[in-house]
Amino acid sequence: MRPPETGAPLRRLEGQLKVTGSARYAVEYALPETAYAWPVPATVARGEVRAVHAADALAMPGALAVLSHENAPRLGPADDPILSVLQDPHVPHRGWYVALAVAETLEVARAMAAALQIDYAADAHDTVLTSGHPKLYEPEQANGGHPARRESGDFDGAYAASAVRVDATYTMEAEHNHPMEPHASTAHWVDGGLTVYDSNQGSTKVKQALAPLFGLRPEQVTVVAEHVGGGFGSKGTPRPQAVLAAMAARHVGRPVRLALPRAQLAGVVGHRAPTIQRLRIGADRQGRIDALAHEILTHTSTVKEFVEQAATPSRTMYTSPNSRTTHHVAALDVPSPSWMRAPGEAPGMYALESAMDELAVALDIDPIELRVRNDPAVEPDTGKPFSSRHLVECLREGARLFGWADRDPRPRSRREGRQLIGTGVASATYPVLVSPSTAEACTEPGGGYRVRINATDIGTGARTVLAQVAADALGVPVDHVLIDIGCSDLPAAPLAGGSSGTASWGWAVHRACRRLRALVEEAGGDEVPSTTLRAFADTAGEADAASDYARHAFGAHFAEVAVDADTGETRVRRLLGVFAAGHILNSRTGRSQFIGGMVMGLGMALLEGSTMDPVFGDFAERDLASYHVPSCADVPAVEAHWIDEDDRHLNPMGSKGIGEIGIVGTAAAIGNALHHATGVRLRELPMTPDRVLAHLG
Amino acid sequence: MATISKPTVQHRPTSSEVTLRVNGVSHRLTVDHRTTVLDALREHLDHTGPKKGCDHGQCGACTVLVGGRRTNSCLLLAVAADGEEITTVEGLSDGEQPHPVQRAFLDHDGFQCGYCTPGQVCSAIGMLAEAADGHPSHVTPLPGTGSGAPPPGSPVPLTPAEIRERMSGNLCRCGAYPNIVAAIEEVAP
């Protein structure tokens, strides 16, 4: 019997296109008479546009138009208020778009934007989150539909009675996704219909957003996202560039290219909101947790409510009979926060896993052993059994691979010249999310099969893994399968986000291919059928059915750091992760996903942070020279391993989703290693040299 | 936004003719003086292999080879590149055969979204030549400091640390660095 295609290290199907520069991204489609647009962000944090003086800009040779709330086409209703651009003079935050310059060339559009004179009536602004901010309130829900508050037992009583207590507050600055391809669109109107080549994580959703905005029926809109230069959440929802490009293209009657300048991204495509997280854990002398509270303070904008669900992992991770998990948010005059890789889990597990390390130190128990002693039999918050949970196995296997047994647990026990060396561990978790999808499979006239689904490959390897899923469902080698993704004219599919893409799309692809296989067998088997056979699948009602199981991926991170005792600079020497995330469907691209998440976690730990400037009311870091994402020299040996789980309570492929768990817990492992190296517990991200040095006596 | 006074009346020309030789083909172009080589390639010549990630010389996605040396094409004005020999990622393959660096990126999965990849590949090729020519990097041991220091001007051995240092002008937000380093190690002498 042929070995299955899923699980094999198949190379990316579009790899050749990407390494030769032939893959086309959103503003790389050559259309005749293309014009260029350049957006203009507000320079006040709160107020109103009084006047837009466009005469100088419009006098430039090559100028085509200046759009603002004064003259821009009126848009229909928007589900997401960030898409209602240039509709009124109100400025809800600095960076909000107030005008758009359109010109024959990119150079002229940029010069026009700089030459626009915009008068504002500015109001006082309020942009800095503090722990006692008067605008903090408890929302009904946090992001993802999670209840803002959960309580069980008597936390206060149990905590007060605990033999050993940890009470620590962890703070994180805002972070920005900064995919390498800035958000970009090329919009083109033909015969009243709209085609947008757009950089997004799900063009079905972009199409559904654009149609009502422009008074179109959905079938009049096509959104293409064949290749997307990363997203990490920031392209998960439709963004203003698609609306602005379509608006401009309609106004000037020509195709319009609009790539957002990097310096504008911090204000308009979301960020991971800053958090202030208080952790209180009470345990007995053997380390068994009796009381756990995880309380989140965060911000949102005045445009929309987005509440980083950072306390949710504490509802899943450890035994905690008396628990409290809460979220409070303040709506400030800041850009709208949004999804960034592992929203909720990434910041929440930084705090929880740092606090667990503090508890281990307080108890003088090995941090792995502490976690093992608190591994729950059922999910603490729901009481549901886990569909599979191999956290302990990840910790044990990671300890073996990393060489944990040799560790001297005393802080500051290893030194190499100026370098203080330490190692740390942290757990990881991410929920199994899945959404309904449709897909179509058909026979090809010359033999072979074609699968059609509006999945999006933002670098995950979706195209490749779906071909593998299809091949196994059809019972054929993967090179017999053609796969079409990345266009909203294909069968509708949910977005690439929440580590749910492969599960959601793969489920529908599997169903469609199984049906097609049955049709082929009815028609006589393996011979190329004379007519095209076609099968369709819609997993609504199946993929989104409630489960009796708590379904989560788990993992363990190990880090070794070297801290320069003179400068406070922390360098990661080794990262090792072991994950239990169901069946891994492509070992090559899967490993890359895990490693990529860990690298972003390294950035979260040591480099990445967006500072709120209280005077201007905006993030100070506006480019890649000030917002530091990890560079090649920052990233040493990174190893990802996994325990292949056989979990029958997930989907036909048995997969859990792997796009996000790599970032979850990495920062805690690095912070715990920093504590082991130096004896300093920082409780603040990123752990930059200035912050570390302040504690190194 | 600051108040901008009326632009001064422009008496001098704002565009010029230049010749760019791209992947062995000469192109005569009239370009705005503000046009970068990157925008000339992408917007005038439909060579969209070089990518615009930051337009500020901070990310390296636009890296091309100019006269064989790696260059951030977003920082080079087209009028300053008149007559230059430019090689983009599209010009590296030998017919259907990808360049060994491209092959190694495929074999080691040295990319995910692919947006930084053209710059990474061009940068790697330029970097290999720099090391072969004996250019030191920040992590190259200084001559006279003991083991590992190559004599001045002789090829610098490309250890993983050398590769990481020399490739740090090319950001990859997908975090493919370990695979990129493995790919370059494979083609390094």
Write the SSE topology.
The complex is a heterodimer of chains A (697) and B (189).
Chain A: H1 15-19, E1 35-41, E2 47-53, H2 55-58, E3 63-68, E4 90-91, E5 97-103, H3 106-115, E6 117-122, E7 150-152, H4 155-161, E8 164-172, E9 184-190, E10 193-198, H5 203-213, E11 221-224, H6 240-252, E12 256-259, H7 262-268, E13 275-283, E14 289-301, E15 322-332, H8 345-363, H9 367-373, H10 391-402, E16 414-416, E17 419-431, E18 438-443, E19 449-452, H11 462-474, E20 481-484, H12 501-522, E21 534-538, E22 552-564, E23 570-580, H13 587-606, E24 612-613, E25 618-619, E26 637-642, H14 666-678, E27 684-685, H15 689-693
Parallel strand pairs in A: 1-12, 8-27, 10-11, 14-15, 19-20, 23-26
Antiparallel strand pairs in A: 1-5, 2-4, 2-6, 3-5, 7-15, 8-13, 9-10, 9-12, 13-14, 16-17, 17-22, 18-19, 18-21, 22-23, 24-25
Helix pairs in contact in A: 8-14, 11-12, 13-14
Chain B: E1 15-22, E2 25-32, H1 37-44, E3 63-66, E4 69-72, E5 85-87, H2 100-107, H3 117-132, H4 160-166, H5 177-187
Parallel strand pairs in B: 1-5
Antiparallel strand pairs in B: 1-2, 3-4, 3-5
Please outline what is shown here.
The complex is a heterodimer of chains A (697) and B (189). Chain A is an alpha+beta fold.
Characterise the protein shown here:
The complex is a heterodimer of chains A (697) and B (189). With 697 residues, chain A is α+β, with helices and mostly antiparallel strands. Chain A has 3 domains: 35-124 and 180-230 and 235-268, Aldehyde Oxidoreductase, domain 4 (2-Layer Sandwich); 143-175 and 272-432 and 548-693, Aldehyde oxidase/xanthine dehydrogenase, molybdopterin binding domain (Aldehyde Oxidoreductase, domain 4); 435-538, Aldehyde Oxidoreductase, domain 4 (2-Layer Sandwich). In chain A, 24% of the residues lie in helices and 25% in strands. In chain A, the strands form 6 sheets. A 7-stranded mixed beta sheet of chain A has the order 3-5-1-12-9-10-11, sandwiched between helices. A 6-stranded mixed beta sheet of chain A has the order 7-15-14-13-8-27, with helices on both faces. In chain A, helix 11 (462-474) links the parallel strand 19 (449-452) and strand 20. In chain A, helix 8 (345-363) packs parallel to helix 14. The mean pLDDT of chain A is 97. Chain B is an alpha+beta fold and 189 residues long. Chain B folds into 2 domains: 15-91, Ubiquitin-like (UB roll) (Roll); 100-187, [2Fe-2S]-binding domain (DNA polymerase, domain 1, Orthogonal Bundle). Chain B is built from 5 helices and 5 strands, in the order E-E-H-E-E-E-H-H-H-H. Chain B has helices spanning 37-44, 100-107, 117-132, 160-166, 177-187, and strands at 15-22, 25-32, 63-66, 69-72, 85-87. In chain B, strands 2-1-5-3-4 form a 5-stranded mixed beta sheet, with helices on both faces. In chain B, helix 2 packs across helix 5 (177-187). The mean pLDDT of chain B is 93. The chains are: A alpha+beta (697), B alpha+beta (189). At the A-B interface, helix 1, helix 3 and helix 13 of A face helix 1, helix 2, helix 3, helix 4 and helix 5 of B.
